[in-house]
Amino acid sequence: MTIFKCFIIIVLIDLCYVCVNSALEMPPSDQHQPSFTCVLGAGYSGLAAARYLKQYGLNFTVFEAASDVGGTWRFDPHVGYDEYGTPLATSMYKYLRTNTPRQTMEFNGFPFPKTSPSYPTGPCFYKYILAFTKYFKLRDNIQTNSFVQLVKWVGNHWEVTYTKTDERENHTVSCDFVVVATGQYMKPVMPKVPGQNVFKGPIMHSHDYRGPEPFKGKKVLLVGAGASGLDLATHLVNVTEKLVHSHHLKYNQPDFPKSYKKKPDMKVFLENGVIFNDDTFEDVDVVICCTGYEYHHPFLHQSAGLSAYGKFVLPLYQHIVNIRHPSMSFIGVVNVVITKTMDAQAEYIAALIAGRFKLPSQEDMLKKWLQHVYALQDRNKKIADVNVVGEDMDRYFANLTREAGITRVPPVLKDIRDFNAKYRLEDLLNYRDYDFEVIDPYHYKRWYNGGGDRGLECPLDDDTQ
Ligand SMILES: Cc1cc2nc3c(=O)[nH]c(=O)nc-3n(C[C@H](O)[C@H](O)[C@H](O)COP(=O)(O)OP(=O)(O)OC[C@H]3O[C@@H](n4cnc5c(N)ncnc54)[C@H](O)[C@@H]3O)c2cc1C
Ligand SMILES: *[C@@H]1O[C@H](CO)[C@@H](O)[C@H](O)[C@H]1NC(C)=O
Ligand SMILES: *[C@@H]1O[C@H](CO)[C@@H](O)[C@H](O)[C@H]1NC(C)=O
Ligand SMILES: *[C@@H]1O[C@H](CO)[C@@H](O)[C@H](O)[C@H]1NC(C)=O
Ligand SMILES: *[C@@H]1O[C@H](CO)[C@@H](O)[C@H](O)[C@H]1NC(C)=O
To answer: 328 with 249, same domain?
Structure first.
């Protein structure tokens, strides 16, 4: 039986379940019974949710595992775990600049100052997030050092159990709505290669990379050429004694120095190096795997009724709403999209909780979801692609606006995203030496900004707490 048929059977069983339990479990959201919403995570997505929930006058708390807001954009010198032993979500490293124009990342109605470069530094984007938090007065609704361990459906509401990590105490709160905004870069994927335990050096993941300093004068093997792999190649190529890069991306490789060697996939590790698929050998001291992440929702109790592993969570309506329990929603369980997508999803969720629009019946949501799954099959995609939006991004934005009346993400942002994705691979070392401006919902302009230190400018206030 194909995995597709298998999933469809699961869904049909779900469908029957829904038919006999057809009362829609949406708590009332009128004045007489104010609802309480629990948001998990205070990164970009959770903060976006907080802003709209606040705007709609809803009662909510954001539970954030780390000691401060910002998620990915908060640099933390710790590796693996923070000072309280909580797993770190951030993979931020020194000298990072965004690899996408800020215009595709900005919160709705809260642009960077006009003179900001289009590819700000990591610390500058973090500053922007702090400025957003301050401007919308979100701090009072955010509880930091609160690591959510369990989210359980108990018949008519959710119970969220979290560890207050600085006090080492567990607490349980009752929530009418749960918004999961815990990000997608916490669980690194490591390649499995024969001989791995024979190799004497460290094999690490880019999640734990904080800067180039420890690799100075070393022989380094980078694995993978996704966003992180390419970025680290440019950061390391001039500081390492030798940089071996194993990947199969087709792109316009810059003129790297002779110490850079491109290699195909790894075949086997030896004590002091690696043999690749072309049967060549390279001696290396350390390996950095830039091999991506899986979704990670260890706190979801089975009563949530979801399947979540690898790169997908299902079944979700609009990649947002848990069809089994529509009072649970997700932000950021969606792939190959611009960061602003998370802002749109956040507005959709707040509008839903505020009762500004109604979802279809559970049965209709499942039917729609099933159609989406069948369409994947028609396009020769796998179930693992169920949360990929990519090329459909603009239609997705249009659908969210049509259904929920939220702000339309302008079509021009997909054009900017597409241009950037292509041009980045054409000119990896210089693509950030251009600035963009959105002229209207359909047009943008782009110009050479002179390069140099332009990218380091950050015209945001320092007073952001
Ligand atoms: C190195 C790197 C560079 C990137 N660069 C770009 C870029 O240039 N452009 C771009 O558009 N996108 C970029 N991204 C994508 C980036 O993740 C998004 O821009 C955005 O930060 C996603 O926000 P988020 O809130 O969904 O997730 P996150 O930023 O990961 O925030 C999730 C938050 O949830 C918290 N959390 C997790 N689990 C729990 C729990 N159980 N209980 C309580 N809290 C929890 C975490 O501590 C974290 O604060 C990059 C990602 C990485 C990893
Ligand atoms: C918000 O919800 C919390 C938790 O249910 C409750 O203790 C508090 O009284 C509520 N506040 C308001 C203003 O309704
Ligand atoms: C809190 O909950 C976690 C996860 O269930 C558990 O491992 C831990 O022992 C609990 N801590 C206390 C103080 O009860
Ligand atoms: C490495 O250094 C050379 C010489 O200074 C410079 O031309 C090149 O741009 C640098 N490469 C990177 C990727 O920074
Ligand atoms: C948008 O909605 C239409 C009509 O419901 C649907 O067929 C289509 O798949 C949706 N597209 C996306 C990307 O959500």
So the answer is: no
Q: Which domain holds residue 200?
A: 190-289
Using most ligand atoms within 8 A of CB, pick from 238, 243, 256 the residue to mutate for ligand 4. Answer: 238
Residue 181 shares a structural domain with residue 94: yes
Eight-class DSSP state of 195: T
Ligand 1 mean position, distance from CA 46 (Å):
10
Cα(97)–Cα(198) distance, rounded to whole angstroms?
Answer: 36
User: In this structure, what token pair is assigned to residue 262?
Assistant: 């491109």
Instruction: Check which CATH number belongs to the domain holding 285 and give it.
Output: 3.50.50.60
Mean pLDDT, each 10-residue run in order, the chain (465 residues) = 56 50 52 85 98 98 98 97 96 98 98 97 98 98 98 97 98 98 96 97 98 98 98 98 98 98 98 98 98 96 93 95 98 96 98 98 97 92 92 97 98 98 98 98 98 96 68
Q: Which ligand is nearest to the CA of 372?
A: 5
What integer pLDDT is reported at residue 20 of this predicted model? 43
Q: Residue 1: what pLDDT?
A: 42
In a domain, residue 97? The reply is: yes
Q: How far apart are CA 204 and CA 287, in angstroms?
A: 6
Q: In this structure, are 141 and 28 located in the same domain?
A: yes
Angle between helices 362-378 and 3-20 (to 10 degrees): 170
How far apart are the CA of 86 and the centre of ligand 2, in A? Answer: 28
**Rounded-to-integer distance, Cα 400 and Cα 406, Å:** 7
Q: Is residue 16 part of a domain?
A: yes
Best CA proximity match to 287, nearest among 211, 210, 190, 194? 190
Do 386 and 249 fall into the same domain? Answer: no
Q: Tell me the whole-structure pTM to 2 decimals.
A: 0.95
d(CA 43, CA 51): 12
Q: Give me the number of domains the chain comprises.
A: 2
A 10 A CB-CB count for 175 gives 23
